Amino acid sequence: MIPSGDEGARRAEEKGSFVFRLYVVNEGPGSARAIANLSALCKKHLPDNHQIEIVDLLQDPRRVLSDKIVATPTLIKVSPAPIQKIIGDLSEEAKVLLALGLEQGTT
Amino acid sequence: MKRATSSAAENQDVAALHKTPTGVEGFDAITGGGLPRNRTSLIFGGPGSGKTVFALQTMVNGARQFGEPGIFVAFEENSRHILANAASFGWNLPQLEKKQLFFFDAKLRPDVIKAGEFDLSGMLAGIKAEADARGVKRIVFDSIDVLLTLLEDPYAERREIYRLNDWLSESGLTGIITAKSQGDYPFVAARYGFMQFMADCVVVLKLQVVDQIAMRYLQVMKYRGSSFAENEAPLVIGASGMEVADISAQTSAVEASPERVSSGVGPLDAMLGGGYYRGSSVLITGSAGTGKSILAGLFAEAACRRKERTFYVSFDENPSEVVRDLSSVGIRLGPHLKSGVLRMHSARAETFSAEVHLMNIKRIVREHQSRCMVVDPLSAIVKAGAALTAGRVAERLICLAKSEGITLLSSSLLQGAQPLSEETPVRISTIADTWIHLTNISQAGERNRALSIVKSRGMKHSNQVRELILSDEGIALADVYTAAGDVLMGTARWQKEAAEKTEQKRILAEVEHKRREVALTRAELTARIEALEQELKQKEAEAERLTGADARHKLDLVHRREGLEQSPSAKIFKKRPENSHSAGKKMTRGRRLPKGGGQ
């Protein structure tokens, strides 16, 4: 079963709106890449169907402990359920899509 | 010499200012004060070697004893697990956790997906904020390798470790980073090669199983700007946490005492010139059944009688057995055990490693404040791990006793093909102050116990072998006879003694006999002298009579006799004495007649 790009998008629509929270360290190279990668991914796979909250841990460091953030950047898919945590600059797109249930054309 | 030591001590004091005490017993002594303050220390070790315990204990002690709150960043284990695992140590973690010790669960769940490069900058920023807010002074990252594995890239690993190190030096916190290692030499692994250069202090923990007994060691590999004991130090994780053997300990800080302590055996005290020195260590060696335990028991009993707190450690025999066995030779320990003067501790040698035994002994000695100690047999410790390690433990036991001023008597069983070769398996004979050797000598169909003092530092002692005699009246030491190169003991000695006694009696009897003979002769001679004197006197008297008036009187008598013989009545008068008594009466009558007739 190889779902098409359209199919993935349709499935995402069925599950409702995607809410992302991206923890970054402002000015960090990895963080800038992660923001760019996430934006591109959302534009491609989830147009008009996503929200992105960006948390700068330098601005709000107490959230490290409260939200248990070890790696930066860290992306959390808050909804739809289940909550999913992805670490890294999201440069490996296939892995990200797989983790978000938006997989396409793997294998 | 003295000046050098005091200046070294001063240096240590200065150095200690830049150190953070871990409160882990022994470790602070080895490193001269603890971990480098405001610097990074690496703790390497294989699985189960005690890295987490060491790190956690440093945090707990910091919070409890030194007023330094800490953060524990747990990469490997959930903090709940850590708290549960450490619950048995009695550190009161839940209480501490609220105010002085904070846990950060940095364990990444397995369902976390890694998609691209990441770093730790966000987390470190968060921890910094937390540390500043709570006045944290110490921090642990346990263990870094879990994180490094996630990075999946040697370059990234290095980058993050440098980041962590830079962050630590900027933060002004005293940091501990733990890392898992395989094998004894973690630095062979390229991953950790540069970490060693980076960190100011590197400590390696090891867990080895020798002869089926687990042994732990700690070794300080590196300590920038500080001296340290560089040998492996045995390590024990006991009921209240980790304890490191202080291998840097001075041989003895206690002034040597000239006071003597009785061995419990009068004749032995005499052989030693008054007894053992207070605070010295006495070693009694001998093969099975030579009476080591009895000497040990007598020493303990004598100490208890003096009301000195005594600690009796026995291996493979429980206290009631020891008390019973010793009572059979008249050594009564029961009452002292009841009164608390005597404390007994028994352990199966194989149950723990020698280190654990030593730690238990140490704890009880301090609790009980013992002044005298018996370890019977110390050689049992050999069973608790490798012989070499056990030897070190034995040495440290002696050092412990010395530093606490305890008079220690330990026994050592001699085994092997040559039980009489006077060589102890645990080579403590060189550090023992007094060494008494007991042997069984087989001769003429019996075995006898012989005692000799092999050495005794700082005291005159007898060099003679004595026979150790056990009887209902107690213990005695008898002189042994040497005859034609043979040492006579037991029955042979008894025979010799008996023969000597008989000979002595014979001589005495002979002398008495002679004395009597002489006395008799003298009496005889005296009597003879008296008799002769008597005779002489008689002769003299006779001679006297023959002179002077007597002689004239005699002449006169002669004249008269002549005259009477011529008279007619003379004949009748002359006949008279020849008549019988009755005839005499008649004669008297008859005599009257002529008398009357004559008047």
Q: Would you identify the regions of chain B where 5 or more consecutive residues have pLDDT less than 50?
A: 1-10, 416-423, 582-599
| Average pLDDT score of chain B | 79
Number of β-strand runs of chain B? 25
Q: Give the strand content of chain A.
A: 15-25%
Q: Which shape of chain B, going by the Cα principal axes? A: rod-shaped
Secondary structure tally: strands of chain A: 4
Distance between the termini of chain B: 143 Å
Number of helices of chain B: 19
Helix and strand composition category of chain B: alpha/beta
Distance between the termini of chain A: 10 Å
Most extensive contact:
A-B, 36 and 27 residues
Uncertain regions spanning at least 5 consecutive residues of chain A: 1-5
Instruction: State the shape of chain A.
Output: globular
How many separate helices of chain A?
4
Word description of this protein:
The complex is a heterodimer of chains A (107) and B (599). Chain A is an alpha+beta fold and 107 residues long. Chain A is 38% helix and 22% strand. Chain A contains 4 helices and 4 strands, in the order H-E-H-E-H-E-E-H. In chain A, helix 2 links the parallel strand 1 and strand 2. Chain A is globular. The N terminus of chain A is likely disordered. In chain B, a hairpin with a 2-residue loop joins strand 24 and strand 25. Helices cover 44% and strands 23% of the residues of chain B. In chain B, helix 8 runs parallel beside helix 9. Chain B has 599 residues and is an alpha/beta fold. Chain B is rod-shaped, with a radius of gyration of 50 Å. In chain B, the strands form 5 sheets. Chain B has a 9-stranded mixed sheet, sandwiched between helices. Classes of the chains: A alpha+beta (107), B alpha/beta (599). Strand 4 of chain A pairs parallel with strand 6 of chain B.
